[in-house]
Design brief:
The structure holds 2 protein chains of 2 kinds. Chain A contains 14 helices and 7 strands. Chain A is α/β, with parallel strands linked by helices. Chain A folds into 3 domains: about 180 residues, P-loop containing nucleotide triphosphate hydrolases (Rossmann fold), CATH 3.40.50; about 50 residues; about 100 residues, Zinc Finger, Delta Prime, domain 3 (Up-down Bundle), CATH 1.20.272. Chain A is globular. The mean pLDDT of chain A is about 85. Chain B has 4 domains: about 130 residues, no CATH class; about 180 residues, Rossmann fold (3-Layer(aba) Sandwich), CATH 3.40.50.300; about 80 residues, no CATH class; about 70 residues, no CATH class. Chain B is built from 23 helices and 6 strands. In chain B, helix 9 links the parallel strand 4 and strand 5. In chain B, helix 8 runs parallel beside helix 9. Chain B is extended. Classes of the chains: A alpha/beta, B mainly alpha. At the A-B interface, helix 3, helix 9, helix 10, helix 11 and helix 13 of A face helix 16, helix 18, helix 19, helix 20 and helix 21 of B.
Chain lengths: ~350, ~575
């Protein structure tokens, strides 16, 4: 088992990073009536961990006995019936799905799952009808229609089930849903917190940590705890005992992007643009999300850029990121950004160096 | 010249009655088929007129009226000629295509070398003491109206040979079939008839020659119109039967195949034709391809006709006709005749001078306009996919979406243009993003709007286009990439136990955080570091088989694998 999973806190009491939030959540859950919850925050900050812990708090250890299923829902969509296949994780008391995996049929999924849950409610020990919890991942990736239908089903079936929503950015969740949930923002953990966690893991694994080594990992992780732990484990596998100068393995895709960035800085021509496209394709094939590519690329470019240009380049990056979300084929927009950057940079070079 | 033609036509009309029976018919049948196609071409030109009429509808009413008059008279002339065809034909009413049919090798508009090739081929085979040739079949391919059959006829008469031809039986319509079956006549498919015809030629071809001519002029067999085949088995039969013919015929035979211009079309028939061509060639037929007639030789012929007819058509107009005909001389001549018809009619209608003025104005218009194709008689030409691509990639602004290789066509310095282009392509993408599977009318509009934006954007953005040179045209990689990433996602999901046991991570987290680390962890040694570029390229190759099954646009699939020379 990976350390990330091994050292994941199981209960709200064991949570190390967001202790105050965990404390509040515990109070909330023990008071029986729990509202819908919306967890949002950057990746690697502990949303999932908190959700799992909340579920355990609600239903006891039974919540951890999950089974993975590939389920097919038959959905009657007006004129035709659809078969939608989704992976679900479920225990007796909760179901977890990522409806955005269903593409543009996501709205049917949400409705259908909630309806079905409402149909067979569990009866708790006191003979009272209890409720089930539906965990929805990546709510921000849901289409607008799906979010609307989610809102309606939320209202209609709120007696029978509680929703726990999880997403990276609450800005892409409609106002209507946000106002119906208790919003819980999960910050990216500070470097000190990450350091703390790493040291704890080091202690439990009985490792010798040279001073400053864990700090370096924490710094490199970009305040992403999952990444820090993964990197930590990788270092352990690559070389132990640790030395102070040991290289922390970089992410290959990030390397690739910085390569692209230096390509762009070196030459600005359609030919180079074409080569860059090939490299972008490589990234896309490896399932790196285009938004992350664009973000990282901007990051790399900004590092090498003259301060004068930074504002304009950021503006265009934002512009094309927006258009990328509106559009379907991300490559067009990333490429347009690269072309725009080349054009800006080239005229800058000509203006300064003649 | 005209007299001779008159006679021919009369006799062809006589034959019309008997043409239901498949037979070896004399050279006159040629004119018959010709007149058929003529009526076809006139109908297209009148369609063209309609279009022109629509486009001119904004101009004032009197002109419109006048054009309508033309239309009526035009029809009258042609229908009139049809009625009187069997009886008598006045000089003016005759179709110029027949009237100015080439009579000598010099008059042919076909390229001299091609004619020479064909002629020597026939000469060799018609020599009295000829050697035994394995291949007695000549395959002539080319667009409609490039003078394939005309060349054969002219060459035959030059060599003093008689042309025998397969005379396509008229199709049996359903009512007729019902009637026939009542009388006990069996229905035989056209393909059957053709097969039996070929069989006869193979077996008794020589015998037949001996009974027809006493002086034994040499014989050329002409197969002009292959029977229509529908479906694989029928096509296979046709192929086999033609292959037999190629292998065993003793008479020099010319098979004419009409290309429909676009080899990349998905049209089943066009592809069949291509296959047929290949199979015939492989079984030993000699192949000659006729190119579309060049504008220059077309002009020469049109001027000659103008001289003979004594109609004063401006050089510009002849130019225009020659250009718009797309290398189809039959069409060009018909257009010319139609065009020359007008002034006569105007005069005979004794219309006022103002109509003359408006006529002039109108006739100037098409020349002045940016689109050189607004003539009433422009051949309705569909651009082949590659032609269209070339038109806009090379930024020929006088005048359809392959977005991937636009960059090749940009100047090396023109990074600004590249940005404009990719922005427009992005716009098109955003428009298309609204499409959700099911098709309705609004989405059709959206689609064409997106296509239009992409094309126009590319045309507009490419402000200093490169001169034409050789470019490789590749298929878009986008589909492959999408497919590969989906596939990889699936595989990864299965591979990673964490994903199964705990919560279902989104694929982005998998890809960006788990995978790179797992690669390192899984190897246990830092040696085998596998960069994404190598991996992906290998991935692509591995998956290549699968990609072909996806619903890539069929056209682009068909052509994509080869690099295609610039056009």
């Amino acid at each position: 088992m990976l350390w990330v999973d091994k050292y994941r806190p199981k209960t709200l009491d064991h949570v190390m990073v967001h202790t105050d939030i965990a404390h509040n959540l515990k109070k909330l859950v023990t008071e029986q009536d729990c509202p819908h919850l919306l967890f949002y925050g950057p990746s690697g900050s502990g949303k999932k961990t908190l959700i799992m812990a909340v579920l355990r708090q609600m239903f006891g250890p039974g919540a951890e006995k999950v089974k993975v299923e590939n389920r097919t829902w038959k959905v009657d969509a007006g004129s035709r019936s659809l078969d939608i296949e989704l992976t679900t994780l479920s225990s007796a008391n909760h179901i977890e799905i990522s409806p955005s995996d269903a593409g543009f049929q996501d709205r049917y999924v949400v409705q259908e799952v909630i309806k079905e849950m409402a149909k067979n409610r569990p009866i708790d020990t006191k003979g009272k009808k209890g409720f089930k919890v539906l965990v929805l991942n990546d709510v921000d990736k849901l289409s607008r229609e799906a979010q609307h239908s989610l809102r309606r089903t939320m209202e209609k079936y709120s007696v029978y089930c509680r929703l726990i929503l999880c997403c990276n950015s609450s800005s892409r969740v409609t106002e209507a849903i946000r106002s119906r949930c208790l919003n819980v923002r999960i910050n990216a953990p500070s470097e000190e917190k990450i350091l703390e966690v790493l040291e704890l893991i080091g202690k439990k694994e009985e490792l010798q940590l040279p001073p400053g080594f864990a700090a370096r990992i924490a710094e490199k992780s970009n305040r992403n705890l999952r990444r820090a732990i993964l990197a930590f484990e990788t270092c352990r596998v690559q070389q132990y005992p640790f030395t102070n100068k040991q290289a922390i393995p970089p992410m290959d895709w990030e390397e690739h992007i910085s390569e692209i960035a230096s390509d762009i800085m070196k030459e600005q021509s359609p030919k180079r643009l074409f080569q860059v496209r090939g490299k972008l394709y490589d990234l896309l094939i490896n399932c790196i999300p285009p938004e992350i590519i664009l973000k990282r690329l901007l990051h790399e470019l900004l590092r090498k850029l003259d301060a004068e240009l930074k504002h304009e380049v950021c503006h265009w990056a934002a512009y094309y990121e927006h258009r990328m979300r509106l559009g379907q084929k991300a490559i067009f927009h990333i490429e347009a950004f690269v072309a725009k950057f080349m054009s800006i940079y080239k005229s800058f070079l000509i203006a300064t160096f003649g | 010249m005209a007299k001779r033609n008159c006679v021919v036509i009369l006799s062809s009309e006589d034959e019309d009655a008997a043409s239901n029976v498949p037979s070896l018919s004399s050279s006159r049948s040629y004119t018959k088929t010709n007149s058929k196609s003529k009526s076809r071409s006139t109908s297209t030109s009148s369609r063209g007129r309609k279009k022109a009429r629509a486009s001119h509808s904004r101009s004032h009413l009197s002109k419109l009226h006048e054009i309508d008059l033309f239309g009526d008279d035009f029809n009258e002339v042609f229908t009139g000629s049809k009625v009187s065809a069997g009886t008598q034909r006045s000089f003016a009413e005759e179709l110029w295509v027949d009237k100015y049919k080439p009579n000598s090798l010099e008059e042919l508009a076909v390229h001299k070398k091609k004619v020479e090739d064909v002629k020597t081929w026939f000469e060799e085979r018609l020599k009295p003491l000829k050697g035994v040739y394995n291949n007695n079949v000549l395959l002539i391919s080319g667009q409609a109206g490039v003078g394939k059959s005309a060349s054969i006829h002219v060459i035959a008469s030059h060599l003093g040979a008689i042309v025998y031809g397969w005379n396509t039986p008229t199709p049996v319509i359903w009512q007729e079939h019902l009637y026939n079956s009542g009388t006990g006549t069996q229905y035989t498919s056209k393909l059957d008839e053709f097969e039996s015809f070929v069989e006869r030629v193979r077996k008794y071809g020589l015998l037949l020659t001996s009974c027809t001519g006493e002086s034994k002029p040499p014989i050329i067999l002409l197969i002009d119109d292959l029977p229509m085949t529908n479906g694989k088995s029928a096509f296979g039969r046709l192929k086999n039967c033609l292959q037999f013919l190629v292998k065993s015929t003793q008479i020099p035979t010319a098979i004419l195949l009409t290309d429909y211009g676009n080899a990349d079309s998905v049209d089943y028939n066009a592809r069949c034709l291509e296959e047929l061509k290949l199979s015939l060639e492989s079984s030993g037929a000699c192949k000659v391809a006729f190119n579309p007639i060049t504008a220059n030789s077309m002009k020469k012929i049109l001027f000659r006709i103008c001289q003979v007819e004594q109609c004063d058509v401006t050089a510009e107009y002849v130019d225009l006709i020659a250009k718009t005909s797309g290398g189809d001389i039959r069409h060009a001549i018909t257009s010319l005749q139609f065009f020359c018809l007008k002034p006569n009619l105007v005069n005979s209608l004794a219309s006022s001078t103002c109509s003359h003025g408006s006529l002039n104005e109108e006739s100037n218009k098409p020349v002045r306009s940016d689109y050189g194709y607004s003539l009433h008689f422009g051949r309705d030409e569909a651009l082949s996919l590659f032609h269209a691509l070339g038109k806009f990639l090379h930024n020929k602004r006088e005048t359809g979406v392959g977005t991937e290789y636009v960059l090749d066509f940009l100047d090396d310095e023109a990074i600004d243009d590249a940005w404009t282009l990719s922005s427009y392509l992005g716009d098109a993408d955003i428009l298309l993003a609204k499409l959700r599977g099911s098709y309705n009318e609004a989405e059709g509009v959206l689609q064409s709007a997106a296509a239009s934006i992409a094309v126009r954007g590319v045309l507009f953005g490419n402000s200093n286009p490169l001169s034409s040179r050789w470019h490789a045209v590749r298929r878009p990689k986008l589909w492959q990439v999408e497919k590969a990433s989906l596939y990889k996602n699936e595989v990864d999901r299965l591979r990673i136990p964490a994903c199964k046991r705990f919560s279902s991570y989104h694929m982005s987290i998998m890809a960006t955080e788990y995978m790179p680390m797992l690669k390192l962890l899984g190897n246990r040694a830092c040696g085998g570091y596998d960069g994404p570029s190598q991996k992906s390229s290998r991935n692509l190759e591995m998956e290549d088989f699968d990609f072909d099954k996806m619903d890539l646009d069929e056209q682009s699939r068909g052509i994509s694998d080869d690099d295609i020379e610039d056009w």
